[in-house]
Design brief:
The structure is a homodimer of 326-residue chains.
Chain A (H helix, E strand, L loop, with lengths): L2 E6 L3 H12 L3 E8 L14 E3 L12 E4 L7 H8 L5 E2 L8 H15 L2 E3 L8 H12 L3 E7 L2 E2 L1 H8 L4 E10 L1 H8 L8 H4 E9 L5 H9 L9 E6 L2 H7 L5 E11 L4 E11 L2 H21 L4 E3 L14 H8 L1
Parallel strand pairs in A: 1-2, 1-4, 2-3, 4-5, 5-6, 6-14, 10-11
Antiparallel strand pairs in A: 7-12, 8-9, 9-10, 12-13
Helix pairs in contact in A: 1-10, 2-3
Chain lengths: 326, 326
């Protein structure tokens, strides 16, 4: 019998999970829940669409529920609430609030005896895993995380809020010289400015003061002031044509020494993603498999990727994995 | 109280574990066991040295035993035997025989209610983990493993067995064009020859027939015949001066698509190691921590890296890991 997966929320992430579940040999998509009018939603797979409240009547029909809402407004309440009834997965990514979110979800999931895996994706997620493996193997060393080249939604939104701006797309770009220095094991101390640059493609209103917009962008505190930022003004047609994708990626390094500093080692984990939400959705789907399996073994409570033994993520048996992957 | 670690075998790997345990804040080295005369061994750390048989009288003094023997002759008998009395870690790396070794060790460890983690290191080990994560996240895709640049002990030994050869060092080198093609997401089908080249530094006897030696090397079945191989004749002094290290490394790629092939993704995990045995030893030491912790929770039996939740490897608490790594 296949693992019965449901999705809550049908934005980019939800559509990514829909596609990832279709690609999984051992899973089937059984429902999509939305807070919009279900009749207004046309899914790619044709999976039935229900209003969010309907989920509570379908607890026996769903093995694991993948939550595809946002970290700012949806997940802080949605994950603890739904973990009272379902095995759940979320991609909560407000790093500073993860301990609080974990604690809230843990209460619900222990009460319902379900598994809730939070903060799944690539950062937090696969990058967190690689930081952990790196530190555990090379305790004498340094961590480095670089993001990009990729689209930052938060920075694009910040530009759009400037007067005179119609649309914008912001790329975060790692500085090649910094990457090379880390990769060479030089253990550099890098400032914010030395690690990443920011490149902005902006569509301005006709007659807007372009130099004023540019100045507002490059001097914006928190978002741009600490970076070398380049601004390009382009037309809406160019933005739609050349910047429609949502690529992202990045690298986690652990550099360290053994034998009292005599020998150096460099571990590098890198992602180059054509679609940030589709890759994140693929990670969520693999952890949905793990949540279901763990719960079948009687495990419950909140978990993160750090708590999940890798074999639970893969559809093959332990025997097959030992034969083919070790 | 610190985790009491003992080592069986004091070659390069055993010395690496000795150093790695010293660098771990939560571990102490309590004994070294050897099949040589204990009086003949001078350890770096000053840890007491005992003959192998003495281990069986010290079962209450040791939390986990790290086995540092060879896969060909030592581990197939040693690991199942010692798992009858201790939590053990080994680096068994004869890939084709891992299922058989696992089964043998599992019987012993279940009987003694101990944990035995086998085939720990980087390949098998960290590379296996990355193959698993990659396949689980991107089920529609391809795996690629490249090794090097690094010293292959097996190939160096094979050259030394040729008549007229006094000493040799062989480097396995990945082909840059192949790496670039994989990294670009081109999903190439690569032959053995297209993936790696082999470079040999050979010290010949005075008056030896160099062209005959070279021909024997490059045409040697299994080891060299399927590769483009370069042979350099050098003096013993040059070999000792320029090729004394044991560097290695490599890369595991998972390339794949989402959304029915519309978007491509590249995951790359790479290691660049100054000392192959010291890095392997560092991985063994992290998994020794996990074996001890799992056993304290009542877990027993044979395990591989695929079965171990990452958090068990790191000395910090789950709470601290969520706060600092996610």
């Amino acid at each position: 019998m296949k693992i019965r997966v449901a999705i809550a929320g049908y934005g980019n992430l939800g559509r990514g999970v829909e596609s990832a579940v279709s690609a999984a040999p051992d899973m089937e998509l059984c429902a999509l829940f939305t807070r919009r009018d279900p009749a207004s939603i046309k899914t790619v797979s044709g999976v039935p669409v229900y209003s969010m409240e309907k989920a509570f009547e379908m607890t026996d029909d769903i093995d694991v529920l993948v939550l595809c809402g946002g970290s700012a407004n949806d997940l802080p309440t949605q994950t603890p609430e739904l973990a009272k009834h379902f095995n759940v997965i979320d991609s909560f990514d407000t790093h500073a609030k993860i301990p609080e979110h974990f604690a809230n979800v843990d209460v619900s999931a222990k009460d319902s005896k379900k598994v809730a895996i939070i903060s799944v994706g690539w950062d937090p997620g696969m990058f967190s895993l690689n930081r952990l493996y790196g530190q555990a193997i090379l305790p004498c060393g340094n961590d480095y995380t670089f993001w990009g080249k990729g689209v930052s939604q938060g920075h694009s939104d910040a530009i759009r809020r400037i007067e005179g701006v119609l649309d914008a797309r912001q790329y975060t770009i790692p500085v090649e010289a910094a990457l090379e220095s880390v990769r060479a094991g030089k253990n550099p101390e890098l400032t914010t400015r030395e690690k990443h640059t920011r490149e902005c493609f902006v569509v301005a209103e006709e007659g807007a003061d372009l130099s004023k917009i540019e100045s507002e962008i490059v001097n914006m505190p928190n978002y741009f002031a600490d970076y070398d930022t380049t601004v390009h003004f382009i037309s809406q047609e160019e933005l739609n044509r050349d910047h429609a994708g949502i690529p992202h990626g990045g690298r986690v390094f652990r550099t360290g020494t053994t034998n009292g500093g005599k020998n150096s080692h460099v571990i590098e984990y890198s992602l180059k993603l054509d679609s940030n939400p589709e890759f994140t959705a693929s990670v969520l789907t693999a952890y949905a498999r793990a949540a279901y399996r763990l719960n079948k073994e009687g495990i419950c409570g909140a978990k993160t990727v750090l708590d999940i033994a890798p074999a639970y993520l893969h559809p093959a048996s332990g025997e097959e994995l030992r034969r083919s992957l070790l």
